[in-house]
C-alpha cells in the first residue's frame, strides 16, 4: 500500500530555512575577499565586491584600490546589495506567513514574486562584476573567479528555486493545510479483493 500526499503542515518551515541558507551564502559573498584570486603561486591578485588588491611577488603587504571609484563597481555592489536586502525582507515575510495558523496563500505567492525580483538584481550584479572587472582592472598572472563569487551564485540559485516553490505552493493549498485525506493506492488486485 502506498500513501500519496504532499508534505505535511509541519514541513512548512523548509522554505524559510532555504531562504535563511540563501541569506547566509549572500553574507559570505558580500563579506568575502575571494571574488577574484590568483589561480596559482605567487598569489598577487585578490578582489572582493568592494575592492581590488595586488602585491608584488616578494611583497607581503597588499595594495588595495576601491572598486567604488568605478561606476560599474558601484552598480554591481548596489544591485547585489539591493537584492540581498529584499531577500532578507522576503525571509521575514515568509517566517510571518508560515507562523500564522491560517496561511494566506496569496501572500505566499507575493513572496515568490519578490524572490524573482531578488534573483534579477543578484544576477545583474553577478554579471556586471566579471565583465567590467576584466575589462577595466589590469590583471596580474593567472586569475580565477573564486569561492565568494561562487557563494553569490549559489545564493541566487537557491532564491530562484524558492521563488518557484513559493509561487506554486497555493496550487496545493488543501494538501498543505491537511484539508483532504491522502489517497491510498494498492499495487495488486490480490491485496484488495473488495475493490472488484
Automatic annotation (TrEMBL):
Keyword Secreted attached: no
Superkingdom of origin organism: Eukaryota
Tagged with keyword Cytoplasm: yes
Gene Ontology biological-process entries: apoptotic process; cell-cell adhesion
Subcellular location(s) per record: Cell junction, Desmosome; Cell membrane; Cytoplasm
InterPro entries: P53_induced (IPR015664), PMP22/EMP/MP20/Claudin (IPR004031)
Coiled-coil stretches: none
Bilayer disposition of the protein: Multi-pass membrane protein
Pfam families named among the record's database cross-references: PMP22_Claudin
GO CC terms: cytoplasm; desmosome; plasma membrane
Transmembrane feature ranges: 12-32, 77-98, 110-131, 151-172
Key words, A-Z: Apoptosis, Cell adhesion, Cell junction, Cell membrane, Cytoplasm, Membrane, Transmembrane, Transmembrane helix
UniProt similarity note: Belongs to the TMEM47 family.
Protein name: p53 apoptosis effector related to PMP-22
Amino acid at each position: 500500500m502506498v500513501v500519496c500526499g504532499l508534505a505535511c503542515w509541519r514541513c512548512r518551515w523548509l522554505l524559510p530555512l532555504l531562504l535563511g541558507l540563501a541569506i547566509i551564502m549572500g553574507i559570505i559573498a558580500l563579506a568575502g575577499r575571494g571574488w577574484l584570486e590568483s589561480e596559482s603561486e605567487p598569489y598577487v591578485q585578490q578582489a572582493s565586491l568592494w575592492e581590488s588588491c595586488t602585491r608584488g611577488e616578494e611583497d607581503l603587504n597588499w595594495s588595495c584600490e576601491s572598486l567604488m571609484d568605478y561606476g560599474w563597481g558601484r552598480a554591481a555592489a548596489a544591485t547585489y546589495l539591493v537584492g540581498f536586502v529584499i531577500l532578507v525582507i522576503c525571509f521575514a515575510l515568509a517566517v510571518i506567513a508560515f507562523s500564522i495558523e491560517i496561511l494566506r496563500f496569496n501572500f505566499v505567492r507575493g513572496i515568490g514574486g519578490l524572490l524573482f525580483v531578488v534573483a534579477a538584481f543578484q544576477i545583474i550584479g553577478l554579471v556586471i562584476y566579471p565583465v567590467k572587472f576584466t575589462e577595466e582592472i589590469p590583471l596580474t598572472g593567472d586569475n580565477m573567479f573564486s569561492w565568494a563569487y561562487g557563494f553569490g551564485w549559489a545564493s541566487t540559485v537557491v532564491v530562484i528555486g524558492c521563488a518557484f516553490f513559493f509561487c506554486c505552493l497555493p496550487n496545493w493549498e488543501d494538501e498543505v493545510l491537511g484539508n483532504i485525506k491522502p489517497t491510498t493506492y494498492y499495487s495488486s488486485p490480490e491485496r484488495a479483493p473488495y475493490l472488484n
